[in-house]
Design goal:
- By secondary structure, this protein is α/β, with parallel strands linked by helices.
- The chain has one domain: P-loop containing nucleotide triphosphate hydrolases (Rossmann fold, 3-Layer(aba) Sandwich).
- It is built from 6 helices and 6 strands; from the N terminus they run E-H-E-H-E-H-E-H-H-E-H-E.
- The protein has helices at about 10-25, 45, 70-90, 100-105, 110-120, 135-140; strands at about 1-5, 30-35, 50-55, 95-100, 125-130, 145-150.
- Helix 3 packs parallel to helix 5 (about 110-120).
- The longest helix is centred in the middle third of the chain and has 21 residues, at about 70-90.
- The two termini are about 25 Å apart.
- The model has no long low-confidence stretch (mean pLDDT about 90).
Length: about 170
């Protein structure tokens, strides 16, 4: 099954982690590959003991103080995509979460067509979750479930930094 959590509202990664909790609780093996999200330690890193999180991102691209060259982000996303390909081909995981992959495509760090090639190799045994804003229509077309999170109000609208530990990361 392929699930997509997209939209401009908060909760896409949180929904994916909720699915991971459900899967792990049922004895499944879960891998989360985080595109975009960078080298910092987040709450999910500390929680995920029975699953595995791999951060391939170098941080938010061009926002929140990011000064890295675009090429660094692009190389990191390519590394994440290669890792996703290997994980899917290994058939070792029951659930694979490609966190912020929609953003990586939207920002042109990787191509949707390359992601689709990898998804085509998905076995019946493995479920896949794609998160991030701006999910490509080609992803939505092949998904079994797509949920859009819609922002109604967010503290960022007041130009406040709300990177609150335990809520945002």
């Amino acid at each position: 099954m392929i699930l997509i959590f997209t939209g401009n509202g908060k909760g896409k990664t949180t929904a994916a982690i909720g699915q991971a909790v459900r899967a792990i609780g049922n004895g499944k093996k879960v891998l989360m590959i985080q595109f975009i999200k960078g080298p910092w330690i987040s709450g999910e890193d500390k929680f995920f003991k029975k699953g595995k999180i791999v951060k391939t991102g170098k941080g938010f691209v061009g926002i929140l103080g990011d000064k890295l060259p675009f090429s660094v982000h692009k190389k990191a996303a390519a590394k994440g995509l290669e890792l996703a390909k290997k994980a899917i081909q290994s058939k070792k995981w029951d659930l694979i979460i490609l966190d912020e992959i929609n953003n990586a495509v939207h920002l042109k760090l990787i191509k949707a067509v390359d992601v689709l090639k990898i998804i085509k190799k998905l076995s019946e045994k493995t479920d896949l979750i794609l998160t991030g804003r701006d999910a490509p229509k080609s992803f939505i077309k092949i998904a079994d479930i797509t949920t859009e999170m819609k922002e109604i109000k967010h503290i960022f609208q007041k130009n406040k930094r709300s990177m609150k530990k335990g809520i945002e990361y």
